[in-house]
Specification:
Its cofactor is pyridoxal 5'-phosphate. The protein is an alpha/beta fold. It has 16 helices and 13 strands. The chain has helices at residues 3-14, 35-48, 60-76, 91-104, 123-131, 148-154, 177-186, 202-207, 247-250, 276-314, 339-348, 376-393, 400-408, 416-425, 442-450, 453-467; strands spanning 84-88, 113-117, 134-138, 159-165, 190-194, 224-228, 240-244, 255-257, 265-267, 318-320, 328-333, 354-356, 365-369. It starts with a helix and ends in a 16-residue tail after the last helix. The structure holds pyridoxal-5'-phosphate (PLP). Pyridoxal-5'-phosphate (PLP) binds at residues 90-92, 95, 121, 123, 165, 169, 194, 196-197, 228, 240.
Length: 483
C-alpha cells in the first residue's frame, strides 16, 4: 500500500470509532477541549514513539519526564518528600502493580488476600486472578460507600492490602478513606487508594472549595495511590501513575533477572519494553495545561457535572444513583422506562453514554464521565428527548422462558457450539453468522441483564474471542509493495 492509501484507509477505519473530541463520548475518552494542547501532545507521542523506557540510562529523556510527572502529582496528592512513583500504561496496570507489590511485600503470608468494597474497580479482581491473591469483597452500604466497620472486620492475618476508591467508577462517590486507612494501619496492612479517575480532579475540587472526603497521603495509613494521566490529566492514552508513600513500599514492585545469558532485565512495571510515546505525550500535556489550567478544566467539568446531575434529578423517569462527588454520574430509570433504550436513543443523537448492568439488588443504570469539553445544556436536551423516545418505545421484553434459561445455565458447561447459539440468540451474530453489534443494543443488554455475572462473562468472552480473528483477506489491498 502506498502512504496515501494507508492514510486514506486509516481515516476510513477511524470513521467507525467513537469521536475522541467534542465532549460527547462520555466513557473511554476525556476531552479537555484544547485543540492546541492536543496537537502538541500528539507531536510528543510521535517524536518518542520509538524510544524505549526499558533502559532509563539509554533513554534518560523518558526518566526525566517520568520523574517530572511524579513531582507534579506529588503536589496534588499531598505526597511527603519521600513519595516516589512509577509511570504505567494505564489504571489497570497501576492497580495490578499495587496488588503485586503488596503480595510480594509479605512473603510470610501463605494465602494472601486483599479486602475490597464491592464497588472496587474490576482491575482488582483481575489482579487477584493474575497474582493468585484472594479477593475478599465487602458489601457497600446504602450510600454506595465502603463500610469501614465491615472492611475492618474483614481484615485478617492473610490480608496484604485494603483498597478504597476516590471515587468508585460505577457510582462516582468517594469511600471513607480515613477510617479505612486507619483500620488497615491498625493491622499493619497496606492501604491503596484507587484515584485513577479522581486523582487529577479531586485536588482541584478541594481547591475550588468543594467538600471532598480526604483521600490523599495527608491521610495517615494510605500507602499507595493510583492516578491516571490519560483520564482527567487529559493526556493521550497509555499513561497512569502508581505513587507510593516511600521507596521501601515500592521496592517489591521491581523485578530483576540476571540468570540468563542476555541483558539483566530490570523492570518497574508489567511491561519491559515501554514506548516513550505515552510518557512524552503525558509530559507535554501536563506541562502545557499546568496547574492553573487544570484548576480551570476541573471547574468546567465539575460545573457541567452539577448541571447534569441537577437536570437528571429533575427529569421524570430518571433518578441519580448518588450525588456525584467528582465528575461521574449514574442514573437509574423508573419501571416504565428502559434505561438501555435511553442509551441507544442518546447514541442516535450523537452522545455515548455507558450502560451499566444490574448487579445484586442494584438496578441497571446509565453512566457518564463528564469532561471539561462536555456541554451540559446540550447533553440535557438530548437526554430529555431520549427519555421521551424511550418511553414511547416501551419496555424491551425478554421472553420468560429465555430469562429462566439464562438464569439457570451453568456457564462452565457451555461449549463453543452452545456459545455460538447464545451469541446468535442475543443478536450478536447475524443470519450469516457474521459477528457484529446490532444498531440498537437495548435487546442485547436486556438479555445480558437477566443473565448472572458468570454467564455474562462467558458470553462476552466468546464474543470477543470470535471478533478477534484475522480476516481472510487483509483489510484492504495487498501488503506486498506496489500492489
Ligand atoms: C477507579 C478506576 N480504577 C481503575 C480503572 C482502570 O483504568 P484503565 O481503563 O486505564 O486501565 C478505572 C477506569 O475507568 C477506574 O475508573
Amino acid at each position: 500500500m502506498t502512504p496515501e492509501d494507508i492514510r486514506a484507509r486509516l481515516a476510513a477505519l477511524q470513521e467507525d470509532d467513537l469521536p475522541v473530541h467534542g465532549g460527547r463520548t462520555l466513557a473511554y475518552v476525556y476531552d479537555a477541549g484544547l485543540a492546541e494542547v492536543d496537537a502538541l501532545a500528539r507531536e510528543a507521542v510521535a517524536a518518542f514513539a520509538g524510544s524505549n523506557g526499558l533502559d532509563p540510562t539509554a533513554f534518560p529523556s523518558l526518566l526525566a519526564m517520568e520523574n517530572d510527572l511524579v513531582a507534579f502529582a506529588r503536589s496534588l496528592v499531598d505526597g511527603p518528600a519521600t513519595m516516589v512513583g512509577t509511570l504505567t500504561s494505564g489504571g489497570t496496570e497501576s492497580c495490578l502493580l499495587a496488588v503485586q507489590g503488596a503480595r510480594d511485600s509479605r512473603p510470610d503470608v501463605r494465602d494472601p488476600s486483599i479486602v475490597v468494597p464491592d464497588t472496587v474497580h474490576a482491575a482488582f479482581h483481575k489482579a487477584g486472578h493474575y497474582f493468585g491473591v484472594r479477593v475478599v469483597v465487602v458489601p457497600t452500604g446504602p450510600d454506595h460507600r465502603a463500610d469501614p466497620a465491615a472492611v475492618a472486620a474483614a481484615i485478617d492475618d492473610s490480608t496484604v492490602l485494603v483498597v478504597a476508591s476516590a471515587p468508585s467508577y460505577a457510582d462516582g462517590v468517594v469511600d471513607p478513606v480515613p477510617e479505612i486507612a486507619a483500620a488497615a494501619a491498625a493491622r499493619g496492612v497496606r492501604c491503596h487508594v484507587d484515584a485513577c479517575i479522581g486523582g487529577w480532579v479531586l485536588p482541584y475540587a478541594a481547591r475550588l472549595g468543594r467538600p471532598v472526603t480526604p483521600w490523599t497521603f495527608a491521610v495517615e495509613g494510605v500507602t499507595s495511590i493510583s492516578t491516571d494521566l490519560h483520564k482527567y490529566a487529559y493526556a493521550p492514552k497509555g499513561a497512569s501513575l502508581l505513587l507510593h508513600r516511600d521507596p521501601a513500599l515500592r521496592r517489591p514492585q521491581y523485578f530483576a533477572h540476571a540468570g540468563w545469558p542476555g541483558y539483566t532485565m530490570l523492570n518497574a512495571t508489567l511491561q519491559s519494553t515501554r514506548s516513550g510515546g505515552p510518557t512524552a505525550g503525558a509530559w507535554a500535556t501536563v506541562r502545557a495545561i499546568g496547574d492553573d489550567g487544570y484548576l480551570r478544566l476541573a471547574e468546567q467539568a465539575l460545573c457541567a457535572t452539577d448541571a447534569i446531575a441537577a437536570g437528571i434529578a429533575a427529569l421524570p423517569g430518571l433518578s441519580l444513583v448518588a450525588t456525584p462527588e467528582s465528575t461521574l454520574v449514574a442514573a437509574t430509570a423508573d419501571a416504565d422506562l428502559d434505561v438501555f433504550t435511553v442509551c441507544d436513543e442518546m447514541a442516535a443523537r450523537g452522545w455515548f453514554v455507558q450502560p451499566q448492568l444490574s448487579y445484586g439488588d442494584r438496578a441497571p443504570s446509565l453512566h457518564v464521565a463528564i469532561s471539561a469539553a462536555t456541554d451540559a445544556t446540550a447533553f440535557l436536551a438530548a437526554l430529555g428527548s431520549s427519555v421521551e423516545a424511550a418511553r414511547a418505545a416501551g419496555p424491551v421484553p425478554v421472553d420468560a422462558g429465555v430469562a429462566e434459561l439464562l438464569r439457570t445455565l451453568d456457564p462452565a458447561s457451555l461449549g463453543d457450539a452452545e456459545l455460538d447459539l447464545l451469541l446468535a440468540a442475543g443478536g450478536l451474530a447475524g443470519d450469516d453468522g457474521a459477528l457484529g453489534l446490532p444498531e440498537r443494543m437495548a435487546p442485547v443488554n436486556a438479555l445480558l441483564d437477566v443473565a448472572p455475572p458468570a454467564l455474562r462473562e462467558a458470553v462476552l468472552v466468546a464474543f470477543l474471542d470470535r471478533l478477534a480473528r484475522p480476516v481472510p483477506e487483509p483489510v484492504t489491498g495487498s501488503f506486498a509493495s506496489g500492489t
